[in-house]
Design a protein that fits this description.
Layout lengths: L8 E4 L15 H8 L3 E4 L9 H14 L7 H18 L10 H4 L21 E4 L5 E4 L2 E4 L8 E6 L5 E5 L2 E8 L9 E4 L7 H10 L1
Parallel strand pairs: 1-2
Antiparallel strand pairs: 3-6, 4-5, 6-7, 7-8, 8-9
Length: 209
C-alpha cells in the first residue's frame, strides 16, 4: 500500500485474517482497513465464484509456479517473481480486452497513513470511543464489542422504534440492549442487525438505553 496506494474497496472471503466471529464479521485487519478509509466487501459464505478472478489467479499461480516446489525458499521466490512479471507484463487478459495489466495499471492517489483516519459520522449521531479491551460504556451500562474494535470511534443513533443502533463507519453492527433479568449472558449486550430483539428487551431499550 505504501508503494501502490490505497484501493477504494477490498473484496474478501469469510476466512482469516479478513473475517472473524466479531460483530460485522470484522477482524483486526479489516477494521484497520476501514479506519484507513477502505470499504471491506465480504462475499457470501461458501461462494468463491463471487471472487472468481482472484480464485483463478490462485489456481494459475499454484499450477505454473509451485508444482513441483523449488528446493529452497530463495529459488521459489525467483519463480514467483518470474510468474508475476509474466502475468502483469507479458500475458494478455481476455477480461481486459486482451491487454496486459501493466498497460492499464495506475497507482492509486490515496496514500497510506501511519495513523488511522478519523471515521466521520452524520451530524447528530453520538460518537463514542471503544476501550482498549473492546468495551463501550453508554448510559451507565457496559457493552462488550470485542477487542478488534479497540480504540475505534463508533456511533450510536436511535431508530424510529426507539432502539439504539450501533454503527462503525458505514456498517450497522447491531442494537444495544439492556435487560437486567437476562440470566444467560450479561444484562447489557449487542444484538446483530439481522436478529430481531425480544419484545421485552425492545421495551426496556426505549426506557433505559
Amino acid at each position: 500500500m505504501r508503494r501502490h496506494g490505497l484501493p477504494e474497496i477490498i473484496r474478501v472471503d469469510n476466512g482469516t485474517p479478513f473475517a472473524s466471529l466479531a460483530l460485522g464479521r470484522l477482524s483486526a485487519l479489516s477494521v484497520w482497513w476501514i479506519n484507513q478509509g477502505i470499504i471491506v466487501e465480504f462475499i457470501r459464505p461458501a461462494s468463491p465464484q463471487q471472487n472468481g478472478s482472484h480464485e483463478r489467479g490462485h489456481r494459475d499461480l499454484k499450477a505454473e509456479a509451485t508444482q513441483p516446489p523449488s528446493p529452497t525458499m530463495a529459488a521459489q521466490q525467483r519463480r514467483f517473481d518470474r510468474w508475476q512479471h509474466l502475468r502483469n507484463h507479458v500475458r494478455p487478459h481476455e477480461a481486459l480486452g486482451m491487454l496486459c495489466p501493466a498497460q492499464i495499471y495506475r497507482r492509486s492517489p490515496r496514500r497510506l497513513r501511519d495513523n488511522d483516519t478519523a471515521v466521520r459520522y452524520p451530524q447528530g449521531w453520538l460518537v463514542r470511543r471503544v476501550s482498549v479491551s473492546g468495551h463501550l460504556w453508554h448510559n451507565g451500562h457496559n457493552y462488550h464489542l470485542g477487542e478488534v474494535f479497540a480504540h475505534c470511534r463508533v456511533a450510536l443513533r436511535q431508530d424510529a422504534t426507539g432502539r439504539t443502533e450501533l454503527h462503525f463507519a458505514n456498517l450497522h453492527l447491531g442494537y444495544l440492549l439492556f435487560d437486567p433479568a437476562e440470566r444467560l449472558r450479561p444484562p447489557a449486550y449487542v444484538v446483530p442487525p439481522d436478529r430481531k430483539p425480544l419484545a421485552k428487551s425492545t421495551t426496556k431499550t426505549k426506557r433505559k438505553v
